[in-house]
Design brief:
By secondary structure, the chain is α+β, with helices and mostly antiparallel strands. It has eight helices and four strands. The protein has helices at about 5-10, 15-30, 35-45, 50-60, 65-75, 95-100, 100-115, 160-165, and strands at about 85-90, 125-130, 145, 150. Residues about 1-10 have low confidence and may be disordered. Bound molecules: FE2/S2 (inorganic) cluster (FES). FE2/S2 (inorganic) cluster (FES) binds near residues 95, 97 and 133.
Length: about 170
């Protein structure tokens, strides 16, 4: 049982809200084989695809043979090993975020980027995902743009927030 060591060995950033969500889900579901699909499903939702280090992390945390995990990932069409958008926006639609306007954030994204959850823009520059709770309800409505969590997002600001992220490094 070397979960801590393995966590470090795959170098998932500890302060990335997506890492925290996966860690808390594994804690909740229990480190067992039965949790695999649920955990992969959540990871796919929050990243938009399944990055290899994330798969390795999940494999080790659930103490499963890599062949089994990759077997599941490649068997189900829902899972993808390829990034679907240059950038990824995840809108939390859990209860706390929903009552504080997550739906309006999604509507603004659809209006400005012609994107619905699960889709990527035609130029593959942006993907949109939703999750039922990212474990940051005190920050509702919360959005994760790439690796950054953005708290109390106002629908009218989401376009600028996304464009600012997409413009970084240009
Ligand atoms: S409902 Fe959005 S973070 Fe919990």
């Amino acid at each position: 049982m070397t979960t801590r060591k393995n966590y470090k060995s795959v170098e998932l950033p500890k302060d990335d809200p997506r890492t925290k969500l996966i860690v808390s889900l594994i804690k909740k579901e229990g480190a067992k084989a039965d949790s695999l699909i649920q955990v992969l499903h959540t990871a796919q939702n929050i990243y938009g695809y399944l990055p290899i280090p994330v798969i390795q992390f999940i494999t080790r945390e659930l103490r499963l043979p890599p062949s089994r995990v990759f077997g599941v990932v490649t068997f189900y069409h829902f899972f993808s090993l390829k990034q679907k958008g240059g950038h990824n926006c995840l809108v939390c639609t859990g209860t706390a975020c929903y009552v504080k306007g997550a739906q309006h954030i999604l509507e603004e994204i659809e209006k400005n980027f012609a994107l619905k959850p699960g889709e990527v823009t035609a130029d593959n520059s942006l993907g949109l995902q939703t999750a039922r709770c990212i474990g940051a309800c005190g920050l509702a409505p919360a959005v994760v743009i790439d690796e950054n969590i953005v708290a109390r997002v106002k629908p009218e600001n989401i376009k600028n927030l996304i464009e600012a992220k997409m413009g970084e490094g240009k």
